From TrEMBL:
This is Ribonuclease G. Its cofactor is Mg(2+). One of its GO terms (cellular component) is cytoplasm. One of its GO terms (biological process) is rRNA processing. It comes from Paenibacillus endophyticus. NCBIfam families: RNaseEG.
């Protein structure tokens, strides 16, 4: 049983995805302060730094956006020059430029922007200048991959690029055609507005959490979709009719039963609190210690109370395998991004080390956000990365203790409870 729960509390929208009652995804966003990732702006180059091969662009935010040279070259790697040019040969101070936010401002850093434009639809991602067709690696049936690639080549025009998303698996050419026509019109509208707009100005705003959840997270294996707000229920219903009419019958309005909020009724509140703790217990009796810093996330695996029954090596191996499962789940729930270091318990057998790494790879494969497992370091640590683009729920649900610096759950914030 797979369920999506949408809870509205004031300006906060929270979305939880459950698989057999277990939380596997969690998103939250303030409706009046939506993410800037995907927004398109017309800006002006303020400064060019040859030593960094980068430029700063004024797009109307408090801090100038950062544009690295790779984001100015052709989106298709095979069409990039063999010898990378200097940034000052591509842009000049005072030059007007249309850019798209790929990473929103985090901490003291400004937004990171690109000229590799991409507009996501329900079934595909439209890239107006990429000149290639890609198919999601998560579509594993080779016959369907070849079919989708052929449709993509047929649908694209000129220098357009298309990436067929995971949701496109099994979809008809008609559905994909409708998607690209809509996105092509959207891009032309952005271009037209860019010709007349003042500098700096916003040309396009990416969809908010509600539309992104329907577009990116809802799949045909979703059995139930619950929402506890009448106005948002109508919005989701309309979005489903537009994008995936087959799922419309699975949408249900949640009415409080005996004053029990939606997230409490499905045990989401408790699961979120535990997921954002510094110490997370494993079913076997072991536990994780989770530390997040500005530079990276460090996860320490401990056997705790688990003593096993057939020797130390098996005890350690069993704990590490369960920890790999839980880490993959929590990376999604906490929406962790950037560098991640996992200190698994030392194992004596190379075979066990390989199995733990492959388990982590297998479990992160279903993550919609790109995860890269780099493997074991010389110090015996597991090194991995996860794409980071938006401010995560951890910043809304936690705070850093002013005395010891440890990140703790906020005592005065209850964004996951509608009481």
């Amino acid at each position: 049983m797979k369920q999506m729960l949408m809870h509205v509390q004031g300006e906060m929208l929270q979305t939880a995805v459950l698989a057999n009652g277990r939380l596997i995804d969690f998103f939250m966003e303030k409706t009046k302060a939506s993410s800037m990732v995907g927004n398109v702006y017309k800006g002006r180059v303020v400064n060019v730094l040859p030593g960094m091969q980068a430029a700063f662009v004024n797009i109307g935010l408090a801090k100038n956006a950062f544009l690295y040279i790779d984001e100015l070259l052709h989106p298709h790697l095979e069409k990039q020059p063999a010898l990378k040019p200097m940034i000052q040969d591509l842009v000049k101070p005072g030059q007007e430029l249309i850019v798209q936010v790929m990473k929103e401002p985090l901490g003291g850093k400004g937004a990171r922007v690109t000229t590799h434009f991409s507009l996501p639809g329900r079934w595909l991602v439209y890239m107006p200048t990429a000149d290639y067709v890609g198919v999601s690696k998560k579509i594993s049936i080779e016959g369907d991959r070849a079919r989708l690639r052929a449709i993509g080549e047929k649908l694209r025009q000129g220098e357009e690029g298309i990436i067929l998303r995971t949701a496109a698996g099994g979809e008809s050419e008609q559905s994909l055609h409708g998607d690209i026509v809509q996105l092509r019109e959207l891009w032309q509208d952005i271009v037209n507005r860019g010709e007349e707009a003042a500098v700096p100005s916003e040309l396009h705003r990416e969809a908010g959490l509600l539309r992104r959840a329907v577009r990116d997270t809802l799949t045909m294996d979703m059995d139930e979709i619950w929402i506890d707000d009448g106005e948002r229920f109508a919005e989701v219903s309309a979005l489903l009719e537009e994008m995936t009419p087959q799922l419309r019958k699975r949408l249900k309005r949640y009415e409080h039963k005996k004053g029990q909020p939606l997230f409490d009724a499905y045990r989401v509140t408790d699961q979120v609190r535990k997921a954002f703790d510094r110490k997370i217990s494993l079913e076997c009796g072991g536990h994780l210690i989770w530390e997040e810093t500005e530079a990276l996330t460090v996860i320490d695996v401990n056997t705790g109370k688990f003593i096993g029954s057939s020797g130390l090596e098996d005890t350690v191996f069993h704990t590490n395998m369960e920890a790999a499962d839980e880490i993959a789940r929590l990376l999604r729930v906490r929406d962790v991004g950037g560098i991640i270091i996992v200190d698994f318990i030392d194992m004596g057998l190379d075979n066990h080390r390989e199995q733990v790494m492959h388990r982590l790879m297998e479990k992160t494969r279903s993550d919609q956000t790109k995860c890269t497992i780099l493997g074991w370091t010389k110090l015996g640590l597991m090194e991995m990365t996860r794409k980071k683009a938006r401010e995560t729920a951890v910043h809304l649900l936690t705070e850093r203790c002013s005395s010891c610096g440890v990140i703790i759950n906020k005592k005065d914030v209850r964004p996951i409870n509608s009481k």
